[in-house]
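Ticket #4471: structure export looks truncated?
Reporter: QA, pipeline team
Priority: medium

Steps to reproduce: submit the single chain below to the structure queue and open the exported record.
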Amino acid sequence: MALLTCRGLSIGYEGKEVIGGLDFEVCEGDYLCIVGENGSGKSTLMKTILGLNPPLGGSIGFGDGLKQNEIGYLPQQTDVQRDFPALVKEIVISGCQNKLGLKPFYSKEDKARAKAMTEKLGLTPLEKRCYRELSGGQQQRVLLARALCAAEKIILLDEPVSGLDPLVTAEMYELIESLNKEDGITVIMISHDIDAAMKYADKILHIGKNVFFGSADEYRNAKGAFASREGGEA
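Actual output as written to the record:
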């Protein structure tokens, strides 16, 4: 069943279109990588799916009872965010905020979910540490745990390995793959790493001067054509 369906979608900001006519769908259990050159609209697309930016045209539909506030989101970090003075456990449980509604406090269920996500990502020894004291890889695990607290069925990841060293990058990719394959979490991830995208994802959405949506194998066969059309390495 399709969790997300985009038809004729036009995206942009301040009324200026970045790209239009996007047609794709994401089904339960998919691992979709969004790739393309800088400035092609990858992050804008993700923010539009989340409802942070309004679509300029077309439609976004959610299936299987999915709501926008049930989508986990790991954005790109800024330097200010990396220096955030909060405890790890406070950041993880803040992923439950969208579900609070009018409730002033986290429920027992929220606290249990945060604890479970903390354990799943191996963060229990760090839960009383200050976030800004952690390494880049540890911070990304904290933010992923936070995203999983919000996620019922799907997580959106915007360059989750940006700035990480090769070893930590490999560990993060393996962790995301495990969440998808073993826990059944649907993944939509923006990546500049084309090789990793084709290795881990089962679907690819390439946006830019040319648009492609299909399987990773189909994209692998079409990759050379995209590179020549767009004047560089796809």
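Status: closed, not a bug. The export was complete when the record was re-opened. Leaving a note from the reviewer for reference: The chain is about 35% helix and 25% strand.
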